[in-house]
Structure formats: structure tokens, C-alpha cells
Amino acid sequence: MLGYLARRMLATIPVMAIVALFVFSLLYIAPGDPAAIIAGDQATPADVERIRAGLGLDRPFLIRFGEWVWHVLNGDLGVSIFTNLPVTRMIQQRLEPTMSLMVLTLILSIAIAVPMGVLAAWNQGTWIDRVIMVLAVFGFSVPVFVVGYILAYVFALELDWFPVQGYTPLARGFGPWLNNLVLPSVALGGVYIALIARITRATMLEVLGQDYVRTAKAKGVGSRTILFLHALKNAAVPIVTVIGIGVALLIGGAVVTESVFAIPGLGRLVVDAILRRDYPVIQGVVLLFSFVYVLVNLGVDLLYTVFDPRIRY
Amino acid sequence: MRRRTFLAASAAGLAAPAVSRAQDSRVLRFIPQADLTVLDPMWTTAYVTRNHAFMVYDTLFGQDSQYRPSPQMLEGFTTEDGGKTWTLTLRPGLLFHDNEPVRARDCVASLQRWGKRDAFGGALMAATDELVARDDRTLVFRLKKPFPLLPAALAKTPLFMPAIMPERIARTDPFTQVTEMVGSGPFRFKADERVPGARVVYEKFGAYKPREGGPTDWTSGPKVVHFDRVEWTTIPDPTTAAQALINGEQDWWDYATADLMGLLARSRGVKVVVQEPSGQIAILRMNHLQPPFNNPAIRRALLGAMSQEDVMAAVVGTDPKMSRTGVGFFCPDTPMASGVGLDVLAGPRDMAKVKRDLKAAGYSNERVVLLAATDFPVLKAMADVVADMLKQAGMNVDYQATDWGSVVARRGKKDPVDAGGWSAFCTAWAGTDHLNPSGHLSLRTNGEQAWFGWPSDPKIEQLRDAWFNAPDVPAQAALCADIQREAFQSLPYIPMGQYLQPTAYRSSLEGVLNGFALFWNVRRA
Known about the structure:
The complex is a heterodimer.
Chain A: H1 2-29, H2 34-39, H3 45-55, H4 61-73, H5 87-122, H6 127-141, H7 144-158, H8 174-208, H9 211-218, H10 223-260, H11 266-276, H12 279-307
Chain B: H1 3-15, E1 27-31, H2 47-56, E2 61-63, E3 69-71, E4 74-80, E5 85-90, H3 104-115, H4 119-126, E6 128-135, E7 138-143, H5 150-154, H6 167-170, E8 187-189, E9 199-204, E10 229-233, H7 238-246, E11 252-253, H8 261-266, E12 270-273, E13 280-286, H9 296-302, H10 308-316, E14 323-324, H11 351-361, E15 367-373, H12 377-392, E16 396-402, H13 404-410, E17 424-430, H14 458-469, H15 473-490, E18 493-499, E19 503-506, E20 509-510, E21 523-524
Helix pairs in contact in B: 3-4, 9-11, 10-12, 14-15
């Protein structure tokens, strides 16, 4: 297992290198010029050129890429073209809100979606199954920002239970932290809940049709034990896979959710950076997201061995 | 924190709904028009940076809502030698935020840096033979020729504003961003609390000395601060910003969007007003180097297709209080504005006639690449309507929608449209940018040196030079009427109307000044 872990960690290096090259190249060929944006409307072409030279944007691709890689290897993601602040500091400032949002959404989604899926499978064809599947379709179909606006209107403006926007760091107390994150997490979790609930239902239906489940029933084992001890454990591998894949959904959804609820997270940071062509920030955040995604996939692979002892690396 | 304390605080936090009410009477919570990305007012023309700069920095002259300059950091000034020598004396006791006194040499270095970036500043410096600090409180301009607009230049409010900073910082290359915010303005910038893209904090500068006497009006008069802190929270989504204001989580939203005006106006405890009467001027800029708009006859023929009413309706709706049409080349209702030549924009549009005129002018179905910035709803709305007008006029329109960052990069290309160039784009300028010819970049017609589009009309440039030397306002206004007459012939751009930008704040605030967002004088009732 340790050998596998080491091999997988080593394998992340070429993956990250390809991501880095891809992102850098994409930004290089993308239209847009941060120097022109900075220079503003009063600038002459000579002013723009001077700013571009000052930022080092006039140098050849390979030199810029080589320098950037060297700095990254030394733990330095560079300095934002616009704010002049280190990208690592900007990421640190934004990491907690995004991670809080994603972790809370993940917990909330799994806690709601897995029982929903199990319940739907156990009651296949009944009104319970249909209601749950209708809710799942609803979760898939309604965009995050629409859910966000509705939640903010009902629970913040009308009922005054939660604030409309903002983020309170965890260091200031669990209550205020949670208070700010409940609505965004519910809004972001909609699609994720739908996805997990549907895959849980489908997998559970397959498992519940297996011989050993029929045997357990025949032996008089209680339905709760059958569902959660025998069936769910055997259905866990595809569910965990979908949860892992769904992290990408969360990252994408966080961009919208953070904008709707004015959460100062990484999603907003990267969107702002893209609109301004703040290359070091874009590269830094995309690299970080890629790394997180690689780690999540590694975690998912390792979880397979927990749920299915037959799997060994 | 001990576990019980933490749990108690957590429970209290959850029990209290909407914990972040803007109820601290000493803190003003403000939603800026955009994120404050760049701090140096000499490094960008973003209006949000100008607003930030007026908190942190002071200026030698202030400007009132009638656009009149008056001493601000100055105790007074004298002119000698037929207006060729200006002696400016600083008020005593002015301090920078690092508690160093403001000295004349700081002002000299600051103005020299400003003169290298700002058009008006550049004109002043071009007329200046020598700018020196005679002593700690006195700076002297020795001019090559009289420059009656010197106070107006040093009082200007659009960027680049002539911010006074310490000499050690002002010595920074004007094309390198200053990041250490040390000014002598009424607020101190809290660098340690800044979260780029999300939050900016200012605290009252206790050692700031407001000037004594006179009314507080825009950037002139005593700048008395009534809040200990001003917290800017960037909320990119307009709906969320409106909800935060209605819910009392924020006190003031700088740029209330037109589509949410009704909601805000109906909400209790919220006031929606237009504080900035000069608003924004919409323009259609054409590329004068490439066909078809390198042909002045085609540009003139197109005037018949342009409807300022339609463009303004798309931008801010049909409420007549929120926009103006019949707008020329200077901001309406300001001293340099006139009605000269405006008749071409009045009356119903006759597209059949425009088609005939375009053909007679030599238009032969060349492709017109219209750039549209989709991430700025106002610019997108303008481009949509203009595209339709051009099509109705029979032009072969290639509507290219992209983000503003791409438009900014693309508009710098002088190449033909087949080689990645462009034909036209829509944009908007603050009305204060169009007060007079000094900083009116879209009216410069110095060919390849001009603003994007590169129009060439030596006559307008001559009139502009004459304007700088005009002895008084009537003479300046007469020259601006001549400029407008000529501009309607060569058409460096087509004015598309003026729209007003409302601001919204809690009705518990009073003393909000006219002009852009200013944070002195405002207080909680």
C-alpha cells in the first residue's frame, strides 16, 4: 500500500507539469493584455509598451515559462500583476472560505443524498421513490444562482434567519461561521445531492437484487441492517467514485456561489483574475485546484480498499 | 479559546440572525462600484481607484459641484509676472499618515510624477519652465506662458488626480505601481486588512486637519469625517448587493443598477438618489485608419441612423430622469456645453435616406467589425442597439462579443479587420472627463497619437491649444462651441447620450455629498 501511495504521489508530478504547461500556454495564446488594462484610457501605445516591459510580458514564452516553473518549484507562485501582492498570500487569504464552503457542502450533500438514495431504492416505484427522484431532477435542473437568490430572498430578507452575503472566519466562532455558510452550502449542494442520490439509488437497486440480500431477508435480518450494513457497503465503490468526480462540480459551482453570496473565496479570485488577465493568479489558483483534484482522486482510490477488501494495490 | 467559551460564542452566533447588520454607528459599510485592484492613482484610470485615492490623498486645490477650483491643502496662492509665476503656500500643520509633515518638495515630486501620466498635467508641465520648492511650505511654478487653468488642473477629479504623496514615494517611476499608501488625506489605508477582490478598510486619520471655513462641497471645503472606519466590501453580483443593502448589512451601494432601481425605491429604509449630475457619456468610437470609417463622408452619413433615445433606453430604461439625449461633445449643463450642431441627432431616423447617403459617400459593403464587451451590461446594451442601427442603415456588421479585457487589447490594433483589426466599439466616459478639452481624450484628433481610433483633425487640435490660453470662461466656451462644430464634421466619435448613475444608501445616513462617493461629511442620523 505504501509503495502504491508513493507511486501515485510521484505520478502527480507529470500530471501537474502537464497542467502547468497547458495553463501557461492557454494564457499565452488567449487574447487580452493586462498592460493595456492597467494603462487605462489615457495611455499611449508607448505607455502600454513600457508597462508591458516593466511586467516582463514582452519576453519570449519559453523564458517566462521557465522562470515561472523555477519559482513554483521554489514555492513561489509569483506576484499579482495588478495588486502587486504575492499570489501565495492571496491564495492563503481566500483558501479558508472556499474550503469551508466545499467541506460543508460535501458533508451536507452526503448526509442528505445517501439516505435519500437508499430510501428511494428500498421503496422503488412508490410515491417516496418518485418524490425523491423529482427532487433530484429539480436539483439537476435549477441553476445554482437561481437557488441562491431564492434562498437569500426567503431565509435572509423575509425570515431574517441568515445574512444575505459575506463570510465570517471560523476563528470568530463556529456559530457565525456556520450562519454565513448555510445558504451558500445548500445552494451549491443542490446539484451534488441530486447526483449522489441518483447514483446511490441506481447502485442500491443493483445490490438489493443480489442473492446475498435475498438470503439475508430469508434469514430474517432487519431491513435497516440489510440496507446500511450489507447493501450500502457493497454499493459504496461507485458512490465514492461519483463523490470524487463531483468535487470538480463543487469547484465550478463555488465560483458562482461565491459571487452570489459575496464570499471572498478562490472561485471569485480566479474569475476576477481571468477577466483582468492577471496571469500569475490564474496560474496559481488553477494549479492549486488541479492539485486538490489529484489528491481527491487519490483519496477515492484508497477508499476503495476500505469498502471492498478484494481491491489491493 | 476555551472549549466552553467557544461553544457559547458559537451558540450565540447561530441564535442571532443576520449577524452582520451594519449597526455599528462608527463604521460605514460601503459596496464600491468595482473591486479596488490598483491602489496607485497614477497607474490606472479606474474610477474606483480615484475614489480610494480621494480618501487617502489630499490635493492642493479642491473642486466644488460647480466645477470651480478652490484651495484645499493650500493656505493661498499668488500670481505674478502676468500670470507666468504662481506661488502656492501650503496650510501649516499638514501631516502624512506616517506622521511626517507635508513639505513643498513632496508636492513638487508628486506633481512631476502626475504630469507624466495625466493629459491635463502634461499640458501644465509643458507650459512650465520650472517647478520648485522655495521652502517647506512654498512651491513656485515658473511658466513659459500664462496658464490660467493651473488651479483647475490641480483640482481635477477624474483620474489621474493630482494626489500629493511623500517625496520618497513620489519619486517612483510613473509606470511602476506605488503600493505603499501614505497620503495626507482624511483616511488612512489599512493595508493589513485588505483582501484583494473582497475587502478594503480605511480608518479615520486622527491628525488630519480639515481646512477651516467655507462650505463642504465635493472635494472642496472642510473634509470632516464622522466615522472611525469605512469598510468596502466588493459584492460582484448586483442582486446580492441590493439585498445586502435592503437587509441593512451594508450602508451604501455606490452604483445601484438600473434594473434594481424599482426594488430599491420600494424598500423601506433605503434611499436612491443621483449624486453625480454629470453622469456618464456614451460614445461610439470608430476606427479612422481603416475602411469604411476612414471616410469622413461615411461617418457623417451614419449620423442619420444614430438615435441617442434608443441607446439610452437600452442602457437605463425609459425614465427621462435617468438619461439625457441631445448630447454633444461636452457634458450637458456644464460651462463648455452648447447646442452647436446637435440638430443632426434630432428628429425621426430615416434609414432609407441613410442607406442612400452611405452609398453616395462611397460605402461598398465593407465589413464593419463592432466590438462588444459582454461583461459590462451597459456597454453590451449599447453595442446591441448600435449593431441594429448599423444593420438597418445597410451596413455589413460583424458583431463580435467578447469580454472587456479582450476589447481593450483588440482596440489597440491598427490593422485591417481581416488582420484582426476592428471598426467600432461602444464605451462610456464619466461626464467629468468631458467637462472641457483638457482631459477629453476621445476628442483628441492628433492622428496616430490620439486615443484608440486615431482620428486626425488639425483644426480641433488648434482650437484645443487656443482653449488652454483663453483668458476667461466665455472665451473658453466660444472655443468649445467651435470645437463641437468642427467635431460634427470630422466626427472623432459619435455621442450616444448621457445617463445618470444612481447611488443607494440607508436612509439613516445624511450628509452624502454630491459627486462621486466621498466619505467626509456623511454621518449617521
